[in-house]
TrEMBL record:
Keywords: Membrane, Transmembrane, Transmembrane helix. The keyword GTP-binding does not apply. InterPro entries: NCS2. One of its GO terms (molecular function) is transmembrane transporter activity. This is Xanthine/uracil/vitamin C permease. It is a multi-pass membrane protein. It is found in: Membrane. The lineage of its organism: Eukaryota, Viridiplantae, Streptophyta, Embryophyta, Tracheophyta. It comes from the Eukaryota. GO terms for cellular component: membrane. Its main location: membrane. Belongs to the nucleobase:cation symporter-2 (NCS2) (TC 2.A.40) family. The chain crosses the membrane at residues 55-74, 86-104, 146-166, 173-191, 197-221. The keyword Transmembrane helix applies.
């Protein structure tokens, strides 16, 4: 802040008017390209690489969807037909959510898949004795209707929290230090479903596990020629 005396000189008698010059705030310029980041908002990947990256997201999402349907549908009384219907429905809704998310809101380049947040309350609904029926198909339909109604109510509450801005205050308290244990606990809860499935077919499960570990540990080689060509991994 600076004051400028506009008016009488050194020997004069009149009082000068002091003008206050407000400081000019200059916004921090946005960088077009961040360091160590392959693609930014203003530098998207080429279309052929975007298709491969999108397919990679789809493969990751497909595994989570299959695990959820495989774990919950048999407990609801459904068979392979009902399991296939649930997987198809979840894939369709995930694609629709991804399409809407890329057009509105934050527009993050990510696939919106299934959430493990609703698995514990879904299991509580399944294990409650209100939906028991001698016919497995009828039991599956009744349980599915109850789960759908609960999800509609829960999603309505989430929409209210999101649009009201209340969740912003909660998100400030969630640091990476507190988020990592939550994600780890969700993964540990699926241990009894994942590793027994790997052990049933060692010929496929063990090489798949070894390849997963090797690729996850070889990320530091991404600047080499082979990894640069296969950067989909």
């Amino acid at each position: 802040m600076a004051g400028v005396n506009d008016g009488g000189g050194g020997g004069g008698g009149g009082g000068g008017v002091v003008k206050v010059v407000e400081p000019v705030l200059v916004a921090h310029p946005v960088k077009d390209q961040l360091q160590n980041v392959s693609y930014c908002i203003t530098s998207p990947p080429p279309w052929h690489e975007a298709i491969l990256l999108g397919f990679q997201h789809y493969i990751v999402m497909l595994g989570t969807i299959v695990i959820i349907a495989t774990a919950l549908v048999p407990q609801m009384g459904g068979g392979n037909r009902e399991k296939a219907d649930v997987i198809q429905t979840m894939l369709f809704v995930a694609g629709l959510n991804t399409l809407l998310q890329t057009m509105f809101g934050t527009r993050l380049p990510a696939v919106i898949g299934s959430s493990y947040t609703y698995v514990p309350p879904t299991i509580s609904i399944i294990l409650s004795g209100r939906w028991n029926d001698p016919n497995p198909v009828a039991r599956f339909e009744k349980t599915m209707r109850a789960i759908q109604g609960a999800l509609i109510i829960a999603s309505t509450i989430q929409i209210i929290l999101g649009f009201s801005g209340l969740w912003r205050n909660v998100a400030r308290l969630l640091s990476p230090l507190s988020a990592v244990p939550l994600v780890a606990l969700a993964g540990f809860g699926l241990y009894e479903l994942g590793f027994p499935g790997v052990a049933r077919c060692v010929e496929i499960g063990l090489p798949q596990l070894v390849i997963l570990v090797l690729l996850s540990q070889a990320i530091y080689l991404r600047n080499r020629i082979i990894i640069r060509i296969l950067n989909i991994f």
